[in-house]
Here is the input.
Amino acid sequence: MSYKTTAALQRQAQILLKEFAPKATSLKVKERQKIPAQEMPVQDPELRSHNMEEVALGYSFEQAQVEAFRCLQCAKKNCMEGCPVKIDIPRFIDHIAKGEYEQAIAVVKETTLLPAVCGRVCPQEKQCQLHCTLGKSLKDIDSSVAIGRLERFVADWERINNKIVIPAVKPATGKKVAVVGSGPAGLVVAADCRREGHHVTIFEAFHKLGGVLRYGIPEFRLPNDIIDKEIETLSAMGVEIKTNFVVGRTRKLTDLIDKDGYDAVFIGTGAGLPIFMGIEGENLIGVFAANEYLTRINLMKAFHADASTPVYPSKNVAVLGGGNVAMDAARMAKRLGAEKVFVVYRRSENEMPARKEEVEHAKEEGIEFLLLRNARKILGDENGRVTGMECLQYELGEPDASGRRSPVEIKNSEFILDVDTVIVAVGNGSNPLISQTTPQLDVNKRGNIVVDETQQTSMKKIFAGGDIVLGAATVILAMGEGRRSAASINELLAAANT
Amino acid sequence: MNTILYKQQLSQDVFLMRLHAPLIAEERQAGQFIILQTDDDYGERIPLTIADADTIEGSITIIFQVVGKTTKHLATFNVGDKLPALLGPLGKPTHIENFGRAVCVCGGIGVAPMHPIAQALKNAGNHVTVIIGARTEELIILQKEMSAIADELIICTDDGTAGIKALVTAPLKELCEQELKPDIVIAIGPPVMMKFCAETTRPYKVFTQVSLNTIMVDGTGMCGGCRVNVGKEVKFVCVDGPEFDGHLVDFDNMIARLNAYKEIERTHYKCFVEKAFNKNVKEVQL
Ligand SMILES: Cc1cc2nc3c(=O)[nH]c(=O)nc-3n(C[C@H](O)[C@H](O)[C@H](O)COP(=O)(O)OP(=O)(O)OC[C@H]3O[C@@H](n4cnc5c(N)ncnc54)[C@H](O)[C@@H]3O)c2cc1C
Ligand code: FES
Here is the structure.
């Protein structure tokens, strides 16, 4: 795909708009199928691989409207089936088609809290867009209506035009809710419980709020302003925020209820426990968990001249893994000046769990993909610094438990990759801090907190949701669990009132 | 929260501060640490052991040596100033019981974190020997406090200006050779000192616990930056430690990892001092 500028994409859309706008309401399915899918304007790949600015620039009004015209407005809303929070997708898109942005965002916000985030980071090709009738009829998932981009468009419209309405808060109930962790799950619980009039306190271990949205997902994919704005809204609603507070250490979980008088607690502490490969050389200088690498840069601003937190100077970087975390780490390494960045993944591209768009963006930025390869050993010098990585080649065998074809080692296929930095992004387990300090809390073998269908844990008044329950999952699933937890908490507190 | 209530300069580079932190004061136990930032936008997160706590005043005491940009910046804070970020107490508390004969070896400002541990060991009924090592007399801190706790106090200096002219490992070896061997040795100080304490006690099979102070980012087990090899396992110092069996710790790897950013840290320190104090820094020893 050759690079098209924002202006060029807008011009094309203007022409299409002239043609289709007059008959927008009477367009036949065949006609809608022919409207070209609107490409997302992006920063020039060469330019953006040296800056931290957002890569995807967002649709213009014209592009949004043209894209909205493509929606078939099916009676059976298949796309909604794929949406974990069941946004009424055709309805909000119909408003965009009519230029009714205020109504469009209102529809989105009926069921979701963070559309500017989800529009950017949801794996739409595995959710709503997978079920899109248009995409199916054209036998190409890339031709589905760009639901995520339209969601982002209306959310950005609302924020940029200062149209964000602070949700109404019911009169004070005198009840207190503690929210532990400020990732997407925690933020949703805070908003939903506060709306009911309960006093809500967010406890966050870090000095800044947002969880992975802040420390994990880079600025070039999710600008901090967006998270700041969400937190501003929560503050304006009267949510109390306590940063630098580790529940389990600064205060025991049970003390929040027993000593501090909270009537309910939500645990949304995420999947913050980096998994390493367990191979030789993993403790050499120059080997990082992606969490550390990204936190240094995103949260601690290590790329900034004034920052005290150092970042490791790298020339050639290998990133192990094939998920979003791996893509973020690889693209970040490139932005910090690495000459060569390799993503080393032991399956093929089809099995990569990363969002498709991120993989494409990474390729455009010059990241090299070494597929069906895996690290066997990290090599170092006498000072304990990384000098290379020994890899092995693989081929795809039988499908495994996850349904993905499992990689099988090819004998004598060793080769050495010339790298000075290795970033391990092969997954995250659950952070054991709360469970270790709260032995009464039931967790499963993997350390995930066990909850019932109302999101309640094995302990009364204590609920949990997001990655700490699901294992490393997605923003939208974390939000969905937050929604359910908040509903259960609100119900519990209402019942206690009568 | 986190107002500085008291500040004292203990020696040229070493400072003591009492910080208002009532929740941490209430929860903390011997062996635990805090993470602080002197700037919560661009500052780094550094771990410091809690030397003492006062639940009535709602304060904790930290003792730190100026070794880089952040500690240099921290030393410029005065009574009444507030710390932008303070998190804790972190890490597992020291396991205290009546072991019998306990030897506490502390080097440099390692005396500070050792103080509450020695106190707790004493309270649990142990016979406590404290060995303090320093380069020279004026760098010895908390001697009075330690002599109030210890059944026996041994001072070692490199230049012989106080106590015996020896490294801490010399009296430690002697103690191990006595008929009544120590039941536990706890060593806190520079990594090299801890390494050699562990080597000294190894032939005598005396359990030796060390307290590691690695580079950290979050301090909650999320980043893995603080990992060390302990025996065949990889451990995170911030949540699995900070205390480990010194005979199992791979000190060489840990020391190498501590130096991962030395060059950059030197530059940061130099820039900070030049900016903040309008001084030209030629050589920085970190
Ligand atoms: C680099 C990266 C990229 C990703 N990209 C995508 C993507 O493109 N799309 C997508 O859908 N998902 C993505 N994910 C996954 C997604 O971010 C997570 O699924 C989601 O953030 C989980 O939300 P959460 O609320 O459960 O927890 P988190 O976002 O993990 O937040 C948990 C918070 O709790 C705090 N905390 C932990 N323990 C305590 C304690 N004891 N006391 C107080 N606070 C505590 C933590 O500091 C943290 O702020 C990505 C993840 C990473 C790491
Ligand atoms: S400091 Fe991050 S895991 Fe220990």
Summary: Chain A has three domains: 6-160, 176-272+429-496, 276-426.
